[in-house]
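As the next step, I selected for study a record pairing a protein sequence with its C-alpha cells, which the following lines show:
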Amino acid sequence: MPNCRRFAAIGVAAFLTAGTALAQEQAASTPGGFPVGPLTVYPGAELSQGYDDNLYTRPTNPKTSNFTLFSPYVRAEMKSGPHKFDAAFRINDSRYHDAPADSYTDYTLSGGADLVFSARAGLNLRAEYRQGHDPRGSTDRGVSATPDVYEDTSIRGLFRYGAPGARGRIEVDAAAGKHLFTNNRASTEASDRDTKGIGGTFFWRVGPRTELLVNMSQIEVDYPLATSTQDSSETRFLIGAKWEATAATTGTARFGRQRKEFDSATRQSFTDSSWDVGVRWSPLSYSVFDFATSKSASESTGFGDAIVGTNYGVTWSHAWSSRLRTQVLGNLRNDEFKGTGITRNEDTTSFGLKVGYDFRRWLRLGAEYTFTERDSNDSNFNYKRNLLLFTVGAAL
C-alpha cells in the first residue's frame, strides 16, 4: 500500500500542476478528423499508467503491480445519401511491471452500416472481431501460467419498420457469434461456444412521448466439445415502456421472465424473472444522472450450470467547465450460481471516480480510481481491490 500512496500522490500532483498551468488556454473543441477519399478518419492514442493492488482477486496475500497501458485506435466514417458506414480498429496493450506473465495485447476490429430505405424502413448491420483475454483469477476455471486468450467473432442485424412518430413500429434483430479460446486448452476448451439468436420488439405509441413495448428473444448456445453437457436455449419475454417524460428525463423499462433450458438432463433448467431498466435524468444541460438495473442469465465460467446476475448502477456525469469533467459511479451486483446442490451466492460492490481535463482540442488528461469488494458465502471468493489509472490521450 505505501507504493500505492506514493503513486497516487505523484499522479495527482502532476495532474493538478499541469491543469493549473494550462487553465487559461483557449477552450477545447470537439476532436476532428481528416478526409481520405469519401472517408473521414479519426486517429488517436491513449497512454495510461496504473496500479492494481489485487491482480488475481485473492481473499488473502494479494499480488500487486504497476502497469502501463497503450491504446492506439483509428475510426473511419462515411456517408452516402441517407446511409452511414463506419469502421474502427483499437489495440489495448498492457505491460505489468511486477507480473510480466499477465501482460496482454487485445485488439478489436469492427464495422457497421446504417441503411435507410425509406422514412419507415431501415437496417443496421454490425460485425466485430476481437482478441481478448480473461485475467488470471477472474473465472472459475483452473488458473494457468498466463491469462486465457480468446477470439470473439460476431455479426448482428437489426431491421426496423415504422416511422418515428407512427402509432406502431417494429424492430427485428438476429445475431450469431463464436467464442474460441486459443491457449491453455486443457482448461479452456470446455468453454468454447457458438451462439445464435433472434428477437423482436413491437412498439405502440400511447402518447406524444411514450411508447409501450413487447419484446421476445430466443438464443441457442452450442458447445463444440463432444463431451460437453452445457448446450442450451434461452428465451426471454419482456413487456414495458419507453418514454421521454420531459426534456430532462428519458428512459426504457422492460420486465418479464427468462427460461434457460439445457439439452442434457444432467443440467438443471430453470425459469426466473428478468428485466432491463435505464433512466437518464438531466437536471442541467451539463449534469446527467444515469440509473440502470438488469437481471439476466449468463454462461458458467467453470462452476455450476449458469449464473443469474442482478445489477444496479448509477453514474453522475458533470461538466464543471468546457474543459473539466467528472464522473462518479456506483454499482452493486448479485450473482446467483445455478445447478443441482449449488448454493453459491455473491455480492460485488464497486465505486469509482473519474476526472478528465481537455488541454487542447487534441490533448486530454484523465485520472480514475475504482474500489471493488466481493462478498461471497464461500469465503474463498471474497476479495477487495483498488485500481488507480492516470491517462494521457491525443486525438486529431
